[in-house]
Each structure stands twice: as C-alpha cells, then as structure tokens.
Design a protein that fits this description.
2 copies of one chain form a homodimer. Chain A has about 350 residues and is an alpha+beta fold. In chain A, about 50% of the residues lie in helices and about 15% in strands. Chain A has 3 domains: about 80 residues, Orthogonal Bundle (Arc Repressor Mutant, subunit A), CATH 1.10.10.10; about 160 residues, GAF domain (Beta-Lactamase), CATH 3.30.450.40; about 100 residues, 2-Layer Sandwich (Enolase-like, domain 1). Chain A is elongated.
DNA sequence: TATTGGCACTCTTCACAGTAGAGTGCTATG
DNA sequence: CATAGCACTCTACTGTGAAGAGTGCCAATA
C-alpha cells in the first residue's frame, strides 16, 4: 500500500478505471458521479492534486481532467494482481474452452486457434509461442536409407509430434549401418530433453577423437544436424478485431503494433522478459524494450504442454487497455491450454 | 483502343498516373504543368469532360479536379499489361534475386521470405500460397511400425519435401505386413500427382470388395488418410511497410486489409479467381468478391515449383496503387521464385 | 483539522463566417 | 478545332467567439 492510504488508493483506482472505460481525461466531478464515495468534487480535487504530486496521474493541460501516468498504471495493475479476486463471465470461460477443445491433435492449429482466441476476446494482438523446443524430450529417433547418398531422419518427441528431414551422407551407408546409428542414438538420447541432448552431443563430439568409432561420430553429427533444425522459434499472432476498436482510432497505435509484428526478433526479445515460473505478468509501457512501443502494454502468462516444455501466451495492446478484464482472460486461456494439452497426452 | 483516340488515351493516362503519384484530384492546369502535351488547360478541360462522360474519371464535387473511376483504373491497367514495356530498376531486380536466393532448402522459409519481399517492395500486403498440394507428385511412401498399434507414415514428394503423421492401427501389424503395404502403395502411386492418387484411391476402394485383400484395403485406407492431411492451404502474408505509407493515412484502408487477413477463407476465395495459365493479372476493386474491399486491388501472378505444382503470389493494396511499378515487381518475383525452385531440384 | 461550497480563471472544443485558391463550364474569337 | 477570358462553384483553411468542463484557492463549516 506504500504511501497511499486506503481512500486515496480507491480514488486512484476509480480514476484509472474510469479513464480506461471512457478514454477521456477524468475530472473531479466525473469521479463523484460515477462512484459514490460520499465525497464532494472539491475533496476529490485535493486528493487528485496529491496523486499528481506523487506521479500517479497527470494533466494533459492546465485545468483539464487527469490521466494515469505509466507509474499509475503499474500501481493499478499491481493491486489488481495482488487481489486476484478477478472474476470472469461464465459464458466467456465456456466459449474459451470450446474454442480450444477438440483440436488437440494438431499443436500448430491449437496454437493458431489460441492466438485467434486471445485476439478475439481482447480485440488486441494475441501472441502465442509454441512449447520451447529445448524443453521437449526426444522419444525416438530413426534414420532410414532413402537413396544412396541420402537418408531420411525422423525425430519423435514426447508429445508424439514428429519432425524429419532428408540429410546428405558423405558416403554410401547400408541400412544395417544406419540401424546401428539409430540404435546408438536411441540408447543415448531417448527420453532426454533437447537442450540436454545438445550438451551431450557437444561433449561427446569433443571426446570423439578418443573413441574413434566412425559410425558413432557420424551418429553424433547426424544428431547435431537434426537438432539444429529445431531452433526456429515460430510465433503466432492474431489481430482479429483490433481494427474495430475505437481505441485504435489513433492510427499511430495500429502502426506501432504492426511494426512490432513485422519483426519477430523484437517480439522474442519482448517475450524473453517473461518469467515462466510466475502466473500472469503485466508489462506496462514497453519502451524499455522497444522505444516505439511506449504506449503499449503486454499481459502474458505461460502454459505447459503437459510434459516438460512450456510456452508463452499473451496479448499486446494500448497501455490503457482493460486490465481488469484481460488479466483473467489471459490467465484462463493459459490454464485452458495447459489442460487441453495435458489431456491429449 | 476502343472508343478513345490516341490523344485522349494519353491524357487519361496522364491523369491517372498523376493521381496515383499525388493522391489529389487532378485539374486541367495540373496536367499541362506535369506533361507537355502542347495543349492549353482549356483543351484539356474539354477532353476531361468527354472522359467523364465515358465514365473513366469523375469529380468528387462540382468544380474539383478529376479522380479515376474503377473503370478508369481497369482501362489503365489493361493498357499497361498490353504494352508490357514495363522496365525495372536493375537494383531492384538484383535485390529481389538476392533475397530469394540461397534459401532453396526450406520451402516454408522461401514462401515466407517471398511474402516479406513483396510486402517490402510494395509497402502493401504480400500474399504467397505454397504450390498446390494437389499438383504435387508423390515420390515415395513408407510406413514404419512405431508402437504395437501405431505406425509412422511418411510421404516424400517430388521436390524432396517430407510430410508425415502417426496413424492408429486397428490391430497389430508386423513390420513385414507394413512393408507389404508400403510396397503396394509405392508401386501404385509412386510418381503420381496427389489429385490423381485421390481419384485412384476412391476408385480402387469402390472395387475393393472384389479384390478382398485385407492388406491392400488397409493400404488404401492409410493412403486416404495420409492424403487428406494435405488439404490445408497455408498462406503467408506480410504487411511490412504498409504502416509507413502515407496512402494508408486513411485508417479505413488499413482496417479493410486487416479484415481480409483475418479470414483466410476470404483470401482463398479471392485467389480462386486467379488463372494459373496467364502471366500477371490485376483485379481492380475487389468488391465483387468481398464487399468491404471496394477500394482495394490485387496484382497477382503464378509460379511453379519446377515440377508440376504451381502456387500464387501477389499483393493487395489500395486501388490507387502504383501499378506501373508494382506489376513488374510481381511479375519478376514470380519468375525469380520459379527459377530458384527449379534450380534447387 | 478535514471537508465543502463558491468563485474566478484556464484551456479545449465546436460552430460559424469569411477568404483564398483551385478548378470548372461556357462563350467568343483566332 | 484550339484557346483565352470570365463568371461561377466548392473546398480548405483561418480566426473568432461562446459553451463547457475542470481547476485552484479561499473562506466557511462540522
């Protein structure tokens, strides 16, 4: 509660919530009309002056209403997250579940649908990253002869998704040899997480001069190549209704978001900030990461695939988005996604 | 040349090109200043009145300059496509090639990069569809035992891309049986296009009661399932610089494009119009397909993957986009893509 | 001492009017 | 047939003034 007493706190929240609802500078009279604090506008005025002094709100110009500052939003969001008595409309919960249920089979589609759903409920940009490749475990590896100098390699992951690639061989191998490679790889790396595999391959390759077994060396090279293809960090977004919202009447906000979408690297940089152990996290004002995103905020949470890997979901919207409504939505979506994925195991 | 004589034609083109350049209603005086026709404004005025009569241009209000109508644009584009003396900046050709060269390996990335490139050069929405799955030929099929009731099926296509999926088996098969299935499928469908495979599977399944060979029936079922997964029509887009362009100062145009992106179905409906045998095609005013896209146009062309399959690339932008510049860009991009794909075979 | 009503003041927003300018159509003329 | 001239139209811009929302301060009050 820091430097604010309960009443001041309440009024700050009233101002911020009003501003979020109306998108208009909030004056003292406005506050008394919308909330029944049993206080006169004059009193509110005094408190507002104090809140301005403390940097929570500000006036766009002399004798205008007050608008929350970044600090104000941060404080507001903090109290929201602390209380966490955020309730949700039953209908929304239901709709949410329905949207994600029944497409467990295809992770890609599920991720896609999730981003659309987030976007649909928020009217802003929905972002979803797939479960981090590095966390996924390898279940089974197979290398099959294809042509004389090409082999088809297949990775099956813990969640039964499959990745594969044709790899070039520098000499002719028999299927028998390939089976030996396969065998070795499965024994070494079956059930191991990709990041672990990476480390082990690097270590073993460094020792390889001692072992001197050509086939095993080759196996490791194959493995290295296979894993390297897992680095791509796909990232889905949706901007479904963003264009409808009056919020975005200011064209520059749309431009800012579009600019963000353009550059996946920026996005990843943004998501790198997310702590996977916590629940919902809110980042108000993204300018410390991307200068042009000064007036944008991000609400994120993490989910797991029911195994070991976790991914990130969230939304990006204007700083003055409706946190009260959106925090539970992101929270719920993350939980629903985790549930759906766990069940499909 | 229809109802217009050469001089009138020239002036119509001057007006449209000026409007595209300046985005401002074009008056008679303006035309004489920007082009040296050796005619006075008064003469131009008479011709303009005639052009308005014919429906090629219109006045936003009494005594304003003229603006092209949809009909005007169509006529303009037709003459552009007929002449086809459209030249391109060497630097752009070079840049274009560089962007697409060297990533032949990964079709997905190539498509992605192409859409970004189109978007980059046009500042509008770039669209690229992958080579039509139905046109692709099947090179090799394999079914591998995975667990007692699951098998891993692998399709290798003519272009060496690989698709796979885990399929459920209703009883336990030995690898020997699966090999037999594999064998049968390869003999039947190796080198055949997917659409052809589809037909044949349907036909053979209808005759299957006669053959009565359980394994073959199962093979066909497997094949059917495998192919059905090929139906997804992925579609990449980019909107890289669109937000920078002054054209889009009108927020509604951005909204229209965003709305289009939202709905892949609409997009596919749009692209269904494209004739794969022709070169560059231009669709002015997309309202007959999607009402909200009245003020948008599409410039498209097709490419092939060096084998039998062809895909579509193009851009969608405001009706008053710079066709003169963008038609060659789309044309060139399609050709570059075809070239890059053919070389990587 | 905290709260409140009253009051003068500030700043934006909106409507309205007036003007400059670009462009037109028409007509008379070379 | 092309053109110069002219009266006319409509927009875009500018400035002004009034309405309104809101403030800060001060004195009165519980």
């Amino acid at each position: 509660m820091s430097e604010l007493n309960e009443r001041t706190e309440k009024i700050l929240r009233a101002i911020i919530q009003s501003y979020i609802d109306l998108n208009v500078p909030i004056g003292s009279y406005m506050v008394t009309r919308r909330f029944s604090f049993g206080l006169s506008p004059a009193t509110i005025r005094n408190i507002m002056a104090a809140l301005e002094e403390l940097g929570y709100i500000t006036q766009p110009y002399t004798s205008a209403g007050r608008v929350p500052t970044e600090r104000g939003y941060k404080h507001y969001v903090d109290t929201l997250l602390k209380e966490y008595s955020l309730s949700m409309n039953k209908a929304i919960i239901h709709e949410l579940f329905n949207r994600l249920h029944g497409i467990e089979i295809d992770l890609q589609r599920l991720i896609n649908e999730t981003s659309k759903t987030l976007s649909f409920f928020s009217s802003y940009l929905g972002i979803v990253t797939p479960p981090r490749a590095e966390d996924r475990t390898l279940k089974h590896i197979r290398v099959i002869k294809y042509t004389s100098n090409k082999a088809l390699s297949i990775l099956i992951f813990g969640d039964d998704t499959v990745k594969n690639r044709l790899i070039d061989l520098e000499r002719v191998y028999t299927q028998r040899e390939l089976d030996k490679i396969t065998n070795y790889l499965n024994i070494s790396f079956g059930g191991v997480s990709l990041s672990e595999v990476k480390d082990r391959v690097a270590y073993q390759l460094s020792r390889e001069s001692i072992i001197c077994d050509r086939l095993i060396a080759k196996s490791l090279m194959v493995c290295k190549e296979l894993i390297s293809m897992e680095n791509e960090d796909i990232l889905m977004e949706g901007l479904t209704g963003a264009s409808n919202l009056p919020d975005f009447a200011d064209i520059n906000e749309i431009k800012d978001i579009l600019k963000a979408i353009e550059d996946k690297h920026l996005m990843l940089k943004l998501l790198a900030q997310v702590d996977s152990s916590e629940g919902v996290q809110v980042f108000v004002g993204l300018e410390n990461i991307i200068p042009s995103m000064k007036k944008l905020s991000m609400v994120v949470s993490t989910y797991t695939d029911g195994m070991d890997a976790h991914g990130t979901i969230g939304i990006i919207g204007p700083t003055r988005m409706n946190y009260k409504e959106l925090i539970p939505i992101v929270d719920r979506t993350a939980k629903t996604l985790t549930k759906v994925l766990s069940e499909s195991q």
